[in-house]
Amino acid sequence: MERVSLDRHGIRFNANPNRLPFPLAVLKHTNTMVPGNGVAAGDLDGDGLADLVFSGFRGLGIFKNNGNMSFQDITKQAGIIVDSNIFSVGVTLVDIEGDGDLDIYVCRNERPNRLYINNGKGKFVERAHAYKLDLVAECINSVFFDYDRDGYLDCYVVTYSNHGVNSRMLEGKGDQIARASEQMQREMAVPRYGTTQQEQQELADSKRKPLNPIELRHKGAADVLLKNNGNGTFRDVTYQAWISDEAMGLSATVGDINLDGWPDIYVANDFNVTDLIYINNGDGSFATQHRKMVRRASVFSMGSDIADFNNDGLPDIVTTDMLPKNHVRRITNSGSSGDMSIYNPTYDSLQIMRNMLQLNRGNNQFSDIGYMTGIAATDWSWACLMVDLDLDGRKDIFIANGYTSDLSNQDYVYNIGRMSADQDSNGRFLTEPNFVFRNKGGIAFEDVSAAWGLADTSASLGAAYVDLDNDGDLDLVVGNIDDNPYIYRNTAVERKLGHYLRVKLVGTGGNSRGLGAKVRITYGGESQYLEQYPVRGFLSTMDDVMHFGTGTATVLDSVIIQWPDGRTEIRLQVPADQMLTLNHRDASIPTRGMFALSKPEAPLFTDVSGTTGLDYRQTENKFDDYKKYRMMPVRASWGGPPVAVADVNGDGLDDVVFGGARGITTQIYLQTRPGTFTQASKAGLANEFGSEDQAIVLVDIDGDGDRDLIVAAGGVEFDHEDNEMLSFVYINDGKGQFVQDQSGRLPNVRTTAATIVAADYDHDGAVDLFIGGGVGAQYPLPSRSYVLRNNGKGYFRDITDSVAPGLSDVGIVRAALWTDVDNDNHLDLLVAGEWMPITLFHNDGTGTFVNITGQAGLDKTIGWWYSVNGADVDNDGDIDYVLGNIGLNNRYQASDERPIEIWAADFDDNGSIDPLITYYPFPEDNKPYLMRDRGKILSQMPTLNRRFNHYYQFASAPLDKVIDREALDTAWHRAATLMKSAVLLNNGNKTFTIKPLPDMAQISPLLGTEFLDLNDDDNIDLVTVGNMYGAEEDVVRYDAGKGLVLLGDGNGEFRPLPIPEAGFVSPFDTRGVVLAKNVGASDVPLVLITAVNQGKAESFKLNNTAGIRVMSLNPARVTHAMTVFEDGRKRKTEAYCGSGYRAQSSCNLVVSSRARQVILYDREKIVEDGTVTKP
């Protein structure tokens, strides 16, 4: 992009002519003031060149495009009324009367909105009153669309609140301003209609009772839906259409969000009311579906856009907020939340202050991936536009930012709070460079703002993309409130970066521009689609000529258009690099399903949760981790429920056991012959102390042939000496009745357990245990871990230090796996956890374990690991591993060069450990800085307030200026460098190759995992679940995960399967996932079961895949199996008692239709060698 000089383009339009600094009385209310700064692009006079319209404090400015990036101010000649200090906000270009030319509708703050009718030659007449569009409210913007598909364009008007600052406050000074402010706080933003001065005065004089401070801050106003009567007038149908939520709206974008053929509305709201998604019911009404469709939203949502950024045929959503990217600004602007806290009852607890990029998952649910894509923090942001700027066929993201003043700067807020009302505030415009993020494909973006020429600092709000010079690439027009507009000329065509297709729509009747039409292009296996709604971003209208970048494609396989009435036209072999005109009259009969949501006929799984009888619902006891551990990044007390599958009553059927939270009894569900499950009400599982089941495992510890239950207990809510810290055993009588052992089968194991896994590691015929210790008494110091050896009679002793030196305090363990990594028939121990590397303790064959993490090439894998599981994913005869990590969709972005570090010691000498998490925000400064804000750090270390009583001072200080270097040198210190969930490919020589899982597996923490061949292609596939709702309060929660099916290719690579094709979705705070053999599933007798924190367990049946069969493996006699395929490949499968995340699956082997032989082993001994009989 090249910025066109002011002398060349000639557009002199300052949206805010009022000079700063504002008087203080005005400034104190500008946090709820929306500056007028709209930008609209379109050919107003029919000469083939797009003209420009701007809005601002003085009304509108119309600029004719004379070609060659030169413009002429024709505002007065065009018949536009020039206002003085009349606050014009959003500007919309629309052919409202269907005569083929563009009219102008402008929203004005608490003044009647205006409608300028075009005579076709760029001359306008104001006709809002005649059309009944002279709405009087705190209107922000409007969008026109045919919501009832009657052929006429209706109008949705976004309104703000009843107390915003408008031009009246800018006309006075001192006491006059204060009185005007007080009056405006009492006015109600009830929609009214009128154009006379008397009616305006009546509106200003209307008063209601004073509102209390919280009501003043959070009171909003309902938006307005105006139906086109088809006779040149509109009528208010807001309440009939169920548009009734009162909110502080800032933008609205229209699109067919659920792909049912009806236009829906996304409304971005400021402050207290979360963003709204109005789904069109098709009967003239809308249903609010935001709770079902999105898991979170911005707090101060400003701009919004709907488009398919990853070319999967599904509309995605982007919104903007005001989180700074710069570290110093972020910390300086992070003050006490006060009544604006996200935990205040007037706020939605799922709102968070940052930009959101909502990825459509194909099942009418979205995942926010803002952090992962890098767009989350762009400062005080407004317009956001998904648009292909480099012609590579992928939509990039442009974001404009800036404001009237840096009102979130906490030092500034502190100072102005001590000034008198008529003093100048010394406020200055907040000017920052705008952002553009290049789409790299898939769901990956990179910040190319400076590289693409957008390094200019400005206070920018509105923006529009438009091909101003008709050269085939899209230019950018950016409105500023501190300067004249910026015009950026795109040089993509000139530089031959790619090809393009421009599409002009010729509609019919009252919709001459084809608003609501969908256009799809296909070329070389690629596909893109656009929906014709020019109002996007913030206060702005794009040119209505649709634009596609086509990369290297010069001829398109097809161009398909579906008009709002469903009529369709398909054109084949369409040359690129042209303007293609599509006319409604050329379209054929309606074919509405062409753009519909995909519904595969045979998904891999079917949700059978409602029919299995597994109605277990986990409930957590009340405990606030953050009162005990203020600086912990994720709650430790919400780790459950653990889940285990095995036959507990000896009837040959898999049963399911769920561990309970503190004081809640462990639950057993017995499988019956029809395949349903029934809760065992009297299984004898009430424990003596009412402790918490952290992890569980079902194994035969006493050699009597039945599964006993071992519960690894503890918890961060207990003290070390509490009895609740003791793990314990339930002995099975063989019929599913359990008795809690009182004879001391377990030693005095006191730890906050996070995992328990069992195996006979020493070949003596008795199962041994590993219990991994999680968070200790003071975060981040770990609890103790244990290796417990079985004496053959079901009694265990602690042998950790003698057989595995260094294991007892290895770290905050989250998961472990007994596995033979090197095929020497001796079980090794793989351990993973927080602030530790993937750690391998190798069994040397004598029952002694040696930490060979460095030798295995795993010493640089320090992360926040949560799960580990094993399978032979590359069919080479040894076990590979998948490990779940925190993922990339968070603010903890780590690398070898810039790790996320933790430093822990009693830095302020008050008797408690102070854990400080740091990162490296400045490339030019190789020093760590504190990640958490000043308020949080001072709550942990109040004495720092004496040294850092200003926010900027604290924000600017690297760690060694906050904590003495001597204290840091002796602190407990770890550096995390790898946050991606990954596959460890076994090289066969006790070394591994690390391969990150696909990006879709990185959008949330990855917890539960299960391996099996889902599609009978002889390759191991992977099912994962995740999320963590208990994140630190300024993150709220990690909730982008919906569960994921990953198809393996047999070489260690995995491909994510869309939810509709997978049929598997678990969008909750899901922990473990287990596999059970289910006699009720006749096709393939396997069912996946998920364990959900503070939610209900789910069940998914694996659908029929011809030819596969299921073999049960008894881990008491089978350590592993080897499957030999017809082509000679061999796949190893191990039998685990504990894997994934706090889970134990039934040991089952899925045998494919092309398996020639299955050999079962007890270590090196062949237990069974059988040829597979073909069905």
Topology:
Layout: E1 2-4, H1 6-9, H2 24-27, E2 39-42, E3 51-56, E4 59-67, E5 70-73, E6 88-94, E7 103-108, E8 114-118, E9 124-126, H3 128-131, E10 135-136, E11 139-145, E12 154-159, H4 167-171, H5 175-185, E13 192-193, H6 197-205, H7 213-218, E14 221-222, E15 224-228, E16 234-236, E17 246-255, E18 264-270, E19 276-280, E20 286-288, H8 290-293, E21 297-298, E22 304-307, E23 316-319, H9 327-332, E24 351-352, E25 356-360, E26 366-368, H10 370-373, E27 381-387, E28 396-401, H11 410-416, E29 432-433, E30 435-441, E31 444-447, E32 457-458, E33 460-466, E34 475-480, E35 486-489, E36 499-506, E37 518-523, E38 526-531, E39 535-536, E40 540-541, E41 546-551, E42 555-562, E43 568-575, E44 579-583, E45 605-607, H12 625-628, E46 643-646, E47 655-658, E48 667-671, E49 677-679, E50 695-699, E51 708-712, E52 728-732, E53 738-740, E54 753-759, E55 768-773, E56 786-790, E57 796-798, H13 800-803, E58 812-819, E59 828-836, E60 839-843, E61 849-851, E62 863-864, E63 867-871, E64 880-884, E65 900-905, E66 914-919, E67 929-930, ...
Parallel strand pairs: 21-24, 36-44, 46-81
Antiparallel strand pairs: 1-35, 2-3, 3-4, 4-5, 6-7, 7-8, 8-9, 10-13, 11-12, 12-15, 14-17, 15-16, 17-18, 18-19, 19-20, 22-23, 23-25, 25-26, 27-28, 28-30, 29-32, 30-31, 33-34, 34-35, 36-41, 37-38, 37-42, 39-40, 42-43, 45-77, 46-47, 47-48, 48-49, 50-51, 51-52, 52-53, 54-55, 55-56, 56-57, 58-59, ...
Kindly describe this structure.
8% of the residues lie in helices and 35% in strands. With 1175 residues, it is mainly beta. The chain folds into three domains: 321 residues, Methylamine Dehydrogenase, Chain H (7 Propeller); 485 residues, Methylamine Dehydrogenase, Chain H (7 Propeller); 77 residues, no CATH class. A hairpin with a 5-residue loop joins strand 76 and strand 77. It comes from Candidatus Kapaibacterium thiocyanatum.
